[in-house]
């Protein structure tokens, strides 16, 4: 697993606190409680690298992880990072904080030069919510590559999962989103290898 050995770098409240903007970075985005931190843990092979929680809105920081292995094994050394973005859309987060993160995530997406792509985490049981549609539209507008993990697939049948995947792919076609999508489950470890390969492709973009 090339993503193994990921290490915590820092948790930032503002984009100015992020590591120097060089190398390659992939950001994990999604609504609150969608399963971003769990997906990060599954991909890196750590049980508790990113903090997961039953309480939505727990990750109210941008949490940065370094991938030192990719750096040492590459022909040309390159800093590679994964970023866990704060969950979006949780009602109990105070309005001021939601506003703050709307601004920070927006600025991060627009200005972060090392950002190579987005992994968007979507609960496979839910239809496309406003935050997800906005994120995908941003990717379409800027042609930033995006990979969608339709997660918590262990909660539904395989045919329902396939339906959700077809609907997401149709959304990509209809909206010119430069995206790929797959069925995923952090609990059942479904689609973990495929997702790792996608992250590697994004980092190398
Ligand atoms: P915030 O940081 O609060 O925005 O949430 P998050 O998107 O990081 O979600 P997190 O990974 O903390 O998971 C939220 C809840 O969903 C936890 O109770 C997890 O155990 C559960 N969960 C995450 N992934 C899966 C999955 O694949 N299957 C099932 N059944 N539960 C999952
Ligand atoms: Mg989280």
From TrEMBL:
<dbReference type="InterPro" id="IPR027417">
    <property type="entry name" value="P-loop_NTPase"/>
</dbReference>
<keyword id="KW-0547">Nucleotide-binding</keyword>
<dbReference type="GO" id="GO:0005525">
    <property type="term" value="F:GTP binding"/>
</dbReference>
<dbReference type="GO" id="GO:0000917">
    <property type="term" value="P:division septum assembly"/>
</dbReference>
<dbReference type="Pfam" id="PF01926">
    <property type="entry name" value="MMR_HSR1"/>
</dbReference>
<protein>
    <recommendedName>
        <fullName>Probable GTP-binding protein EngB</fullName>
    </recommendedName>
</protein>
<keyword id="KW-0342">GTP-binding</keyword>
<keyword id="KW-0460">Magnesium</keyword>
<dbReference type="GO" id="GO:0046872">
    <property type="term" value="F:metal ion binding"/>
</dbReference>
<comment type="similarity">
    <text>Belongs to the TRAFAC class TrmE-Era-EngA-EngB-Septin-like GTPase superfamily. EngB GTPase family.</text>
</comment>
<keyword id="KW-0132">Cell division</keyword>
<dbReference type="GO" id="GO:0005829">
    <property type="term" value="C:cytosol"/>
</dbReference>
<comment type="function">
    <text>Necessary for normal cell division and for the maintenance of normal septation.</text>
</comment>
<dbReference type="InterPro" id="IPR030393">
    <property type="entry name" value="G_ENGB_dom"/>
</dbReference>
<dbReference type="InterPro" id="IPR006073">
    <property type="entry name" value="GTP-bd"/>
</dbReference>
<keyword id="KW-0479">Metal-binding</keyword>
<dbReference type="InterPro" id="IPR019987">
    <property type="entry name" value="GTP-bd_ribosome_bio_YsxC"/>
</dbReference>
<keyword id="KW-0131">Cell cycle</keyword>
<keyword id="KW-0717">Septation</keyword>
């Amino acid at each position: 697993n090339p993503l193994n050995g990921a290490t915590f770098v820092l948790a930032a409240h503002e984009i100015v606190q992020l590591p120097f903007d060089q190398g390659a970075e992939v950001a994990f985005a999604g609504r609150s409680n969608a399963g971003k931190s769990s997906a990060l843990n599954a991909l890196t092979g750590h049980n508790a690298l990113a903090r997961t929680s039953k309480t939505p809105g727990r990750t109210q920081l941008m949490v940065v992880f370094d991938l030192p292995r990719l750096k040492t094994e590459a022909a040309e050394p390159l800093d590679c990072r994964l970023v866990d973005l704060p969950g979006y859309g949780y009602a109990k987060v105070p309005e001021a904080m939601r506003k703050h993160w709307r601004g920070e995530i927006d600025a991060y997406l627009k200005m972060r030069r090392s950002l190579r792509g987005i992994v968007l985490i979507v609960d496979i049981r839910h239809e496309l919510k406003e935050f997800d549609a906005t994120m995908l539209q941003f990717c379409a507008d800027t042609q930033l590559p995006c990979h969608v993990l339709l997660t918590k697939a262990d909660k539904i049948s395989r045919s329902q999962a396939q339906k959700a995947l077809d609907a997401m792919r149709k959304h990509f076609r209809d909206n010119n989103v430069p995206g790929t999508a797959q069925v995923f489950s952090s609990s059942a470890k479904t689609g973990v290898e495929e997702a790792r390969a996608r992250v590697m492709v994004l980092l190398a973009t």
